Amino acid sequence: MAQPQLASVWPEEPVPLAVGTAPVPAYGSASLADLLPTIAAGQGVPGLHSAITQLEPADRNCVFLIDGLGWEQLKAHPEDAPFLTSLLGSSCGGTGAPITAGFPATTATSLASFGTGLPPGAHGLPGYTARNPETGELMNQLRWKPWTSPRVWQPYPTVFQLADEAGVHTAQVSSPTFRDTPLTKIALSGGTFHGRLSGEERMDFAAEQLAAADRSLVYTYYSEVDGKGHRFGVDSDAWRGQLMYADHLAQRLAEQLPPRTALYVTADHGMIDIPFDEESRIDFDEDWELRAGVALLGGEGRARHVYAVPGAESDVLAVWREVLGDRFWVASRDEAIAAGWFGPQVDERVHGRIGDVVAAASDDVVITASVNEPHESAMVGMHGSMTPVEQFVPLIEVRS
């Protein structure tokens, strides 16, 4: 009698994903960090390089950043965004392709990449929360808590500052709430900040600022597409309503562009809805295996920085790979850096901010922390990892 195959009796263990299979963002050629240097180089700002070679220079440039508007979400909802949908073919200099946000695909990291023109490993905001090696505490880099000196944390000048120094009329038009935040100071400062409450006011004033000089660089921003996605999901009525409104704002601005202007509509990340079940939401605070040897859990659900108790780094890496490795790319700090997850350049001061272990979701799954992160754990829409739905963002172009 033939003996049964072992695989039919004992299923094979899942094979961990190789670190090298993670789709690394297109740093240096088609990432969010490459946009402003390309624009400003075309305006004659010295020391900057036109990395996105498909973009043609313009005297006046405006970037409208819609928080959370991923490429795949936009393509999936043409009826809610008819204006932006009609311009999808203009993305990335007429190639009809998206650009990548950078890793992790989260607001604080992406805005710092956008504003400085540097990858996360250089500007030093490698996640939603990251350990401060000087204090050993987790720092929330969006809310800037606990406080640390902004210019120590991120010492590089912004592209707006470089443009302003080169004589380009530079302005940011956003909610007054963001005027004096540390994130604004280290990522978006330079020229003049103009606080405007409504979206329509921002679009109208951005158009005025574009026309205020022969060379101008203007940034404006809208946040609520992201907000409704987190709370209700990216196919909810609330989210669709915000997409419709953002589409209206983009058209309003495009119709007011002064001559010789390029308008770019982009985003800081996409988003994915995660089901509320145990298979999709792994609770770190309730999982003794994942907690073993871990001193701090940073990052966010789909892009975790794991800081081990000294001496336990290799054990934590082994356990996280065994438990999660077929649904997450799980890397040691050195592996993640060598693979280019945080860009080709990782400054020495940033090294210790990156987790001893870095876990990036490849599947529809998150690592929550129900006790320590109750608000974040309750979100419907999530982002952070390197999957296309999170990484790909539009670079829609309108010229006058």
Give the neighbour order of strands across the main sheet. Answer: 6-5-7-1-8-18
- The number of helical segments is 19
What is the percentage of strand-forming residues? 15-25%
Euclidean distance between termini CA atoms = 80 Å
In percent, how helical is the residue content?
25-40%
Tell me the total number of β-strands: 18
Compact summary:
The chain is 33% helix and 19% strand. The protein has 400 residues and is an alpha/beta fold.
3D architecture notes:
- The chain has helices at 6-9, 35-42, 71-76, 82-86, 91-94, 107-116, 120-123, 150-153, 159-165, 182-187, 199-210, 224-232, 237-254, 288-291, 313-324, 333-338, 348-351, 374-377, 388-391; strands at 60-66, 99-100, 129-131, 138-140, 169-174, 192-195, 216-222, 261-266, 272-273, 281-283, 294-300, 303-308, 328-332, 357-361, 366-368, 381-382, 392-393, 396-399.
- By secondary structure, the protein is of the alpha/beta class.
- α11 (199-210) runs parallel beside α13 and α12 runs antiparallel to α13 (237-254).
- The chain contains 19 helices and 18 strands.
- The chain is globular, with a radius of gyration of 21 Å.
- Helices cover 33% and strands 19% of the residues.
Give the secondary structure arrangement, pairings included.
Layout (H helix, E strand, L loop, with lengths): L5 H4 L25 H8 L17 E7 L4 H6 L5 H5 L4 H4 L4 E2 L6 H10 L3 H4 L5 E3 L6 E3 L9 H4 L5 H7 L3 E6 L7 H6 L4 E4 L3 H12 L5 E7 L1 H9 L4 H18 L6 E6 L5 E2 L7 E3 L4 H4 L2 E7 L2 E6 L4 H12 L3 E5 H6 L9 H4 L5 E5 L4 E3 L5 H4 L3 E2 L5 H4 E2 L2 E4 L1
Parallel strand pairs: 1-7, 1-8, 5-6, 5-7, 10-15
Antiparallel strand pairs: 2-17, 3-4, 8-18, 9-16, 11-12, 12-14, 13-14
